[in-house]
Amino acid sequence: MQNSPGIAALALSLLIATLGPAAAAAARRAQPPPATDEQIAVQLRDTALAGQNVAMDWVSELTTRFGPRPAGSDNERQAAEWAAARLKELGFSNVHIESFPLTAWVRGVESAQIVAPVAQPLVVAALGESPPTPAGGVEGDVVIYPTFADLKAAPSGSLPGKIAFVAARTVRTQDGAGYGAAVEARSDGPAEAAKRGAIAFVLRSVGTDSNRLAHTGTTSYVDGRVAIPAFALAAPDADQIERLAALGGKVRIRLSSSASYVRDAHSQNVVADVPGRVHPDEIVLLGAHLDSWDQGTGAIDDGTGTAIITAAAKLILDVPERVPRRTVRVVLFGSEEVAQPVAPFGAFGGHSYADNHKAELARHALAGESDFGTDRVYSVALPVGVVKGDFAATVQRVLQPIGVLPAREPARHAGTDVAPTIEAGVPAFALLQDGSQYFDIHHTANDTLDKVDREQLDQNVAAWAALVWLAADGEVDFRSKAPGP
Amino acid sequence: MQNSPGIAALALSLLIATLGPAAAAAARRAQPPPATDEQIAVQLRDTALAGQNVAMDWVSELTTRFGPRPAGSDNERQAAEWAAARLKELGFSNVHIESFPLTAWVRGVESAQIVAPVAQPLVVAALGESPPTPAGGVEGDVVIYPTFADLKAAPSGSLPGKIAFVAARTVRTQDGAGYGAAVEARSDGPAEAAKRGAIAFVLRSVGTDSNRLAHTGTTSYVDGRVAIPAFALAAPDADQIERLAALGGKVRIRLSSSASYVRDAHSQNVVADVPGRVHPDEIVLLGAHLDSWDQGTGAIDDGTGTAIITAAAKLILDVPERVPRRTVRVVLFGSEEVAQPVAPFGAFGGHSYADNHKAELARHALAGESDFGTDRVYSVALPVGVVKGDFAATVQRVLQPIGVLPAREPARHAGTDVAPTIEAGVPAFALLQDGSQYFDIHHTANDTLDKVDREQLDQNVAAWAALVWLAADGEVDFRSKAPGP
What we know:
Largest interface: A-B, 39 and 39 residues
Structural class of chain A: alpha/beta
Distance between the termini of chain A: 34 Å
Strand order of the largest sheet of chain A: 3-2-9-5-6-7-8-4
Helix content of chain A: 25-40%
Number of strands of chain A: 16
Strand content of chain A: 15-25%
Oligomer: homodimer
Shape of chain A: elongated
């Protein structure tokens, strides 16, 4: 920590009192200039990197106290109340909870078995929002489609009484492109299978691991609902069905789920500010989500995101030299995981925030989100107007030493929660994390605190604190579409 | 493959017919000497290493067709019938099934939750042989013991209405010593907790991973039963309870299991021979077990063991030059996992074999077992009488090139299944595998075929085929206690 301006001013007063005005003027000339934004950014970066930040404690306490935090659950609400109290304790301003209604989906008891040729248990997870099976389950012969395109190419009415199985694998990539390519089957598979008469839909988990843990995730409503029961198979179980089919003969399975819906549930966003000293109405928005899937404890999705942005904002709040010109706002969103286009089915925190703060959005300077686990940030994407020029050059000088390179493309998206805000015209930034391992754990019971690497977490906080400081204490217009000098 | 002796003899006959006796005698003198044991061992090793062996197909088909094969189950019996049929197809002699009675333990529906301070699900597995809870489960405050010694030091009557939790971690080691040190809590924990009035017993899984998958395993009978319901917690769930307790206040959990016993069940051993050409009554016994825990498909425990010994024996059966002097016997044991001292509770295949073959054991030359997964063999342990001398030197020349060093100690044990045979005086050998990763998967749902590495499997078959050939085609007396020359 450097000396604060307050102490320097006090020393100067003492000098005037002691030595008289002429000596004081000389001393004033000798006083070092105020720290530059870049100097403070470097100092924030290095403080975070040294582990002097609240991220690890935050994610540990959040996931330990409240465990899974599915949208609309008591655990999610209790976590939000805890978060608001903790943000107040940390010294944030304007801390409050914004509640919104939704229809909550609740996993029931679920099971699956191969029933022929030889009885074997299967590991499955019902997909979020998918309806229960009848009591006793549904049973049918499996029809295997190597890809989702193969299922979509199947004739209408070709699957009466059958269970459609999309066996496509998720490609491991650093940037999450593998997930993007695979997830369409999860979102749209039940509707496509139902159209062809299937009684249920299963897919190989959208994930890159080979654990006996299925990756859940939401599936899309069509006409206000998911048409048929839908499940993800753990990767080894998908392998098993494919190998059994290759040995010859039909594979018959039974699927059971007692999932249910709670139509009068609520979720909530938690808002907390570091008010700007010059332009308090210009907001740099930092988002992450407090809800999680129900199988794990939401450590990497998205406990660490909430920890990273909170820890970064807290470091900025504690900068001894000055608070930033603009307001830094932390929003811990609710109900990210079940986002659906039509409220109140899966209404989500991102829409609620953009609706509640519609009048302020024109003054939002910038928005970003941390929702990609806890692996290292390797790239920074900035709004198109600032990808060249002084701001980008400063960012590069501060972040490249911790392994963060300029992105190849300007930021256009930043995350699901802030998407409605960005669609309303707020410029986006993104600190891109290495997702090579993320989809080993994502949306599974394995999403627990032990998967969080402390050094990686600190590097994330370092990148966020430094970049957000530069954006908030500067006066750069991120909305400018003009290329920089 | 080299030319067979049959083809060489045919060529010699043709020479005699064509050139007359004098030229034939010259040709006979020029004929190469028969292959030495060491040459054939090298050839077996390299054939196996090149992937020309049945191990991968065996373990793939076994685990795919029959899935989990718990002791006394239909799946175990069907797997044994399949194995016997396949061993006959492969050309083995004396293939038969030896059945024996046991009381089978059957996992039911099980669940666990933290009920206070905040409701959270827990991942558990009932320990094998442990009794069910009452319907609705048992609920109590958790008392945490950092080690099993701490529980044993607790006063009698100190745990009324409580749930005892032993939180000790399993140390990762190459040789399995970490498992040995941790497993006592699993075996004896329920009895020690019950003595002190506990209503249930839980322990951190005996395992080295951090997946949300609990490691089951059998627990010991005292007076013919396990006293109280007993469960293993997945490692992250054990962490969670410890962290919650550290945050202050009581942690209360509920445990439920509908496990049951089947008192008129049967298991079975499958026996198959490569009959010796000189001493058919001298048996080199190769053991592994066909049964598995019920959560996975028993790929590494012990599908690969059965595959390794079957593939090694099949290579020996197919040696073109000659069959070995002694009989090579493959025994695929049943009911290894629930071994208990008192039959018929958890009677097991190892006892059944030693009983059924009591009269033959004095002529068993040597016995070994493959039951430690599929990682590479790194060491070979021989009976005390042959750890020095020509046999050991030959073994070293053949196995060191594939990474197998002489063990520091002579072999005294070889595995659970062959233990009764070895206790009856049969000398043991052991091909020691790297167990550093084994306890990540052991006794969990993750024990599936995808965890099997083909190259490691082939190296195991290579070591087994070469060593067993040297033992079976030689005339070394492995019972000799005299140190070698």
